[in-house]
Amino acid sequence: MLHGLVCWIDESDQSHALTISRLVMKRLGYSTPKLLADAKARSDEYHLDDMDLPDAADRKFTRMHAIMRDKTEGYFEADEVDELVTTPSLTAEIDQQSVQAVLAAKVQEAREAGLPSDCVETLQQLLARYCDVFRLAFGNDPPIKVPPLKIRLKEGARPVKAKARRYPLLHREYLEKHLQELLDRGLEYINHRSRWASAPRIVAKN
Questions:
Q1: Distance of alpha carbon 48 from alpha carbon 141, whole angstroms
Q2: How far apart are CA 103 and CA 109, in angstroms?
Q3: How far apart are alpha carbons 85 and 76 in whole angstroms?
Q4: C-alpha–C-alpha distance, residues 166 and 64, integer Å
Q5: Strand runs (DSSP E) across the chain, as ranges?
Q6: HSE-up of residue 50 (Cα within 13 Å, Cβ side)
Q7: How far apart are the first and last CA of the chain?
Q8: Among 53-67, 141-155, 191-205, where is mean pLDDT lowest?
Q9: Which tens digits make up the pLDDT trace of 58-102?
Q10: DSSP conformational letter for 133
């Protein structure tokens, strides 16, 4: 562990590189001339064409990193992202008949599950009154009229990047579809230089 080492993090660098000064290397006992001299003392000639390649796990990670870097490079410019977030285009068409049909089916499910008649009537009135707040798909609606949420970090909190997780096929398909809808509507953007990352957790709902 290196204590008291002043460092600079280049978040635009996609590689997993660590560059340290020659003085630090000398302090750690690393010397390139000494390594070459020791190698010369062991042998006058080396053949490097038989070196082992990285194992499958390393190659897979390198390929995934390169794919994500190429896919997200220049995905959105900052000005375009700001425009999508602050001034969404209002082009979504809401099919109220389809929404009402789905709500009616849910009311019927509640009735068949044993919901009392008076509660069914109350539920129908509430759904009819607030039918406009339901959506069957994402749309470019204007922002809701509530104060924006603010994340407050605890004192001493440090950036953490969660490792990639293995998901079942159905979960992966749902994530890909859901995230693509958010991207298409400008509700999110890809930031491959983020220092924070948490793995999503899929919760099944009936």
A1: 61
A2: 10
A3: 12
A4: 14
A5: none
A6: 2
A7: 50
A8: 53-67
A9: 555 666 666 666 655 555 455 555 555 555 555 556 678 888 899
A10: G
Say which residues have a Cβ less than 8 Å from residue 12's Cβ, sequence separation at least 6.
193
Which run of H or of E encompasses 171?
Answer: helix 169-184
Number of H helices, E strands in the chain: 7, 0
* Backbone phi, psi, residue 197, to 5°: -160, 135
Residues 175 and 178: their CA atoms lie apart, in Å, by 5
* Residue 131: strand pairing partners: none
Region of 152 (left: φ > 0; alpha: ψ -120 to 50; beta: rest) is beta
Q: Are 165 and 201 in contact (CB under 8 A)?
A: no
Q: Which long-range contacts (CB under 8 A, 24 or more apart) does 100-104 make?
A: 100/131, 102/134, 102/136, 103/127, 103/131, 103/134
What is residue 123's predicted lDDT score, i.e. its pLDDT?
Answer: 92
Average pLDDT of span 163-180: 85
On the 0-12 / 13-18 / 19+ scale of CB atoms within 10 A, 77 is exposed
Handedness of CA 170, 171, 172, 174 (dihedral sign): positive
Please state, in angstroms and rounded to a whole number, the distance separating the CA atoms of residues 133 and 125.
14
